[in-house]
Automatic annotation (TrEMBL):
Transmembrane segments: none annotated. This is V-type ATP synthase beta chain. Belongs to the ATPase alpha/beta chains family. One of its GO terms (biological process) is proton motive force-driven plasma membrane ATP synthesis. Coiled coil: none annotated. Produces ATP from ADP in the presence of a proton gradient across the membrane. The V-type beta chain is a regulatory subunit. InterPro entries: ATP-synt_VA_C, ATPase_F1/V1/A1_a/bsu_N, ATPase_F1/V1/A1_a/bsu_nucl-bd, P-loop_NTPase, V-ATPase_su_B/beta. Keywords: ATP synthesis, Hydrogen ion transport, Ion transport, Transport. GO terms for molecular function: ATP binding; proton-transporting ATP synthase activity, rotational mechanism; proton-transporting ATPase activity, rotational mechanism.
Amino acid sequence: MAIEYLGLSEINGPLVVLEGVKGAFYQEIVEFNVGHETKKLGRIEAIYEDKAIIQVFEGTQNMSLKNTHTRLTGHPMEIALSEDILGRTFDGIGNPIDALGPIESDYKADINGFPLNPVARQYPRNYIRTGISAIDGLTTLIRGQKLPIFSGNGLPHDDLAAQIVQQASLGDDNNENFGIVFAAMGVKYDVAEFFRRTFEESGASDHVVMFLNLANDPVVERLVTPKLALTAAEYLAFEKGMHILVILTDITSYCEAMREVSSSKGEIPSRKGYPGYLYSDLASLYERAGIVRGKEGSVTQIPILTMPNDDITHPIPDLTGYITEGQIVLDRQLHGQSVYPPISVLPSLSRLMKDGIGEGYTREDHQDVSNQLFSCYAKVGDARALASVIGEDELSPTDKQYLNFGNTFEHEFIGQGKEENRSIEETLDIGWKLLGMLPREELDRIDTKILDKYYTPAETGSDKQSKTDEDHI
């Protein structure tokens, strides 16, 4: 029998304090009845003897110390799950907002979940194709991986996220079930509407589950949204055998919400004012990705975060980099040159890439092409630095070739249309076309047999003129 408590001891921002509590437990869901008119939900965040500190999801507006009735539900926050959640849109605490009614299911899951047991993990294999050359070719996303995107304010990470949702697949000839769970935290209404409209118009919404927490929603809800998304992903992956890609944007909004709530609790701040448990909290989200032995499905994560002031040493990207298996970094300079997506190749990497590409997965030359493109593009930076000192005209012929390669690489390999969906073969063929701009002796990262099979030198201006003269004769 549930006990109802009348009145509150204290109200502080999104937190309320209830005294005289019996039988309560950490993260238990609490129901509030405010003035017999408004109903709200809360969650117990701390317990001291008979005192419970409760986060109120909808905010504490209209609540007073005397007009509030509190009832402990006896269970943590749960979400009803079935395969019907595919194609549905929910708010930040799991309520449907698409006018299609609630999810009818007897199965309910605790949203708090657990990181995957390392012993039960299966090593990630196979890749997920995004249709974006800079990702598929150079920082390949592997099933079961967590690969964040480091962005900045004003950079097109929303466009990139939408394009990945529309284009992501397990490959052209793969018949396995694939789905996407998309969670947006602290986004503006127009951004949420952009995602919803884009998914509907592209036809992708049928295999997408959306959780939308808007910027004007209570900040406490932001802490729940990614957990709801990951719980839905785990259900579809490990109970229904689907391969699920989870896109979380924006992790920075989640961390700022955590900082705000931590400050309300009076906790001692750490770096930049964030709580000292920021690392463990992020790890509790990221480590819910992976493949479980004996299960058919997988959960793959792409968390997106905006780096404050483009500072990659900021606590959020810094700690994220420790937990995840690589990163994709967006570059403001490339964005200024109208290159989309403005992915900065050199600081980007995928640590699991080598085990999910090559013969039997993508194509035999994939690893060699990736290594050589990285190496050549690194030399482009050296050539540009030298040109800025002595002038481009004084460069050696080889350095001039590298400059030409770098410009073409940025606009034809990294750059592509927002609706351009490239296959892995198209990506690798473009890579070989670019490598053909350089002398064969410069390609020292590719096996000789692969080089013999795929390398074709590009025709120079003099070659084209000679060929034209021969044809004329």
